[in-house]
Design goal:
binds 5'-deoxyadenosine; alpha/beta; binds iron/sulfur cluster; 10 strands; 13% strand; 14 helices
Length: 350
């Protein structure tokens, strides 16, 4: 049994900087023990449906940015429902509807209809990941049946945020969106990219403290992948080994934030074939198998070498099941797998 770890900002920096194998192993062991204690040995699934790559934003690192001439798509309600049915039949328990950021009245109406139909037909847990929408739109989607929302802060350092986004993108608006989500009643998830150009170890330690202060319920973090199609490509990151840093971030967030849901993100697998399994062994408890139809996956290339783009949803299910077996973790079939932190947070304010 590893010794219980207590964290302060200096300790966070110390763990993020260490090259001591023993220290890293102890941290990972403690994070996994804690995760098992809180969530059991179970991993909860969220089938992710990347239903549209249309985006009005121009984030300097992303392969879906508006200025890129890629084939844009928007799935029909019928096709989205087919994917939702697959999640239901496979016992995934929850799904994520993800797209670029694009807000019109018509689109929110369309999405509300999709959300309420999925709720009515399959009663699945539903997470949205649609970017910075207005409070009214977020409220409408919540009323329709979505109860979780993911929006990464990308970095909690405003100066760094401004360096990786064009001038018309607003850090304050992103914080506002996170606050709005909380006040509406969503389970709220955020996260950062790890190994960004200009990013320092201190920035990452501050990110963890930011998550704690914001009292988030869910986290999704992944290594930054250099994308030659994007303007940020010319800037070389300062930090080496973003993959190991990402695992350390997962473990430190588990130890520091305790009862939040933490995803083993797909980007981890770009750096290491067993990237997601490794994250599930150092604090992560959520997996997001891709459910997007295979013919559309090549157009949802946020970063190059994204795993699973040639695969079918069936193959993703089989592959992920085998991966979990290999690390002796169980699948939380038909479970919502809600963040325990959310219920604790609600108790504080009720
Ligand atoms: N590398 C890794 N993650 C990226 N994202 C966007 N571009 C990249 C990249 N080049 C992540 C962002 C965004 C999510 C949809 O994808 O964190 O929030
Ligand atoms: Fe659009 Fe999201 Fe990519 Fe930014 S990160 S360009 S908002 S899809």
């Amino acid at each position: 049994m590893a010794k219980e770890i207590f964290l302060s900002k200096n300790r966070l920096i110390d763990y993020l900087s260490t090259t001591s194998k023993e220290k890293i192993q102890n941290l990972f062991f403690e994070a996994n023990e804690l995760c098992n204690k809180i969530y059991g040995n179970k991993v909860f699934f969220r089938g992710i449906i990347e239903f549209s790559n249309i985006c009005n934003k121009n984030c300097l690192y992303c392969g879906l940015r508006k200025d890129l001439e890629i084939e844009r798509y928007q799935m029909t309600k019928e096709d989205i429902l087919k994917c939702a049915e697959f999640c239901y039949k496979k016992g995934y328990g929850s799904l994520v509807l993800q797209s670029g950021e694009f807000e019109t009245e018509k689109r929110i109406e369309f999405l509300s209809d999709v959300v309420s139909s999925i709720k009515k037909k399959f009663n699945l847990g539903m997470t949205l990941s649609l970017g910075e929408l207005s409070k009214d739109s977020l409220k409408e989607l919540f009323k329709s049946g979505a109860h979780r929302y993911l929006i990464r802060i990308e970095t909690s350092n405003e100066e760094l945020y401004n360096k990786i986004h064009p001038k018309d993108h607003s850090f304050k608006n992103r914080i506002n969106t996170l606050e709005n989500l909380k006040s509406i009643g969503y389970q709220v998830g955020t996260g950062v990219m790890i190994g960004l150009p200009f990013q320092t170890i201190e920035n990452l330690a501050d990110d963890i403290i930011f998550f704690k202060n914001l009292d988030v319920d869910m986290l999704g973090m992944g290594p930054y992948v250099k994308n030659p199609q994007t303007p940020l490509f010319i800037e070389k990151p300062i930090l080496a080994n973003p993959f190991e840093l990402a695992l350390k971030m997962v473990a430190l967030c588990r130890v520091y934030l305790k009862d939040v849901n933490i995803a083993a993100t797909t980007a981890l697998q770009t750096f290491d074939k067993k990237g997601r399994e490794k994250a599930l062994l150092c604090g992560a408890n959520i997996l997001m198998p891709i459910v997007t139809p295979t013919n559309l996956r090549k157009n949802y290339l946020i970063y190059p070498d994204k795993p699973c783009i040639e695969d079918t949803k069936e193959k993703c299910f089989n592959c992920i099941s085998a991966r979990l077996k290999s690390i002796n973790k169980e699948i939380g079939y038909n479970k919502l797998g809600d963040s325990f932190h959310f219920f604790e947070r609600k108790k504080k304010y009720d």
